[in-house]
Amino acid sequence: MFNLPVSILIYISLIWVIEPSVARGKNVVSLIAFRDSNGRLHKRIAPEEIPHREPGSQAISNSLGSMEFRDYSKPSVNLDNILGIQQGKQQEFSAELFPLSLESKLSLVKDIQIFASYVRNDVETYNKICDPNEDLIIIAPTDRAVSQLSLKPWQFPNNIGKLESMGSTEEELDTAIQENISNFVRSHIVIYNDDKNSYKKISPECTLVQSISFTENERGTSQLSGDILLKKEGDAYYVASTRDEKFHIIESIENGSNGIILTVDLSLVWP
After folding, report:
1. Does the entry feature the keyword Signal, yes or no (predicted)?
2. Over the range 179-204, which residues count as b (16 or more CB within 10 Å of their CB) and which as e?
3. Residues 98-122: pLDDT tens digits?
4. 6-52+75-264 in CATH: which number?
5. Which of 94, 97, 252, 257 could form a disulfide with 263 if both were Cys (CB 3.0 to 4.6 A apart)?
């Protein structure tokens, strides 16, 4: 058994913890292609498990290999600020008490691992979650909520079954599936900024926010200027889609150094 110097062990540990952004780009969806008895091409997502990572440093590597750190002069994401409610002490010190990044938090919340796997398969969004200077609100549906959808998230809104029956090429199916995954993930994540461009109070108790998907695809097409509703009643927080305005209680709030994760037994998009 070799006795390595402490300095080498520390270096090896840092290389493992500080995962390069280039390596993150390899965490793309794995697709299985096959043809049925009629010769039609079909695509399915291969089963994937999220590699376990112990909580680590808040540093990450950019494309040039240099480390980036959180600018802690930036205010942390706070739901009470967004809702226009006087801030409580518990949330005021949340960033200091819970310094892990959203990247680490996602792998630790056991009830949202299906959603977490889809996040990892949207490389652009996953890199935002890994960025220590982003401020994100992740509204994460539980595994049960995702499982109860009539179609899997990669099957809509692009109708994969219809594309297969029409004889679409493998490349066309891959593109459609990736678009569906990105739409599902980005419909549950809000990029927060404290100049209030990302949210709008529409009533004394309710605030409208914009998911990444909304800002990319639907800005200017809705009078509401948003697609997610947040409110607080007593000590409880609630979330709803503007599609049906049916509020569901937020089951837990995980505070990270670069945002928060709201766990809810609800998918904000459905077929």
Report:
1. yes
2. ebbbbbbbbbbbbbeeeeebbeeeee
3. 468 899 999 999 999 999 999 999 9
4. 2.30.180.10
5. 252
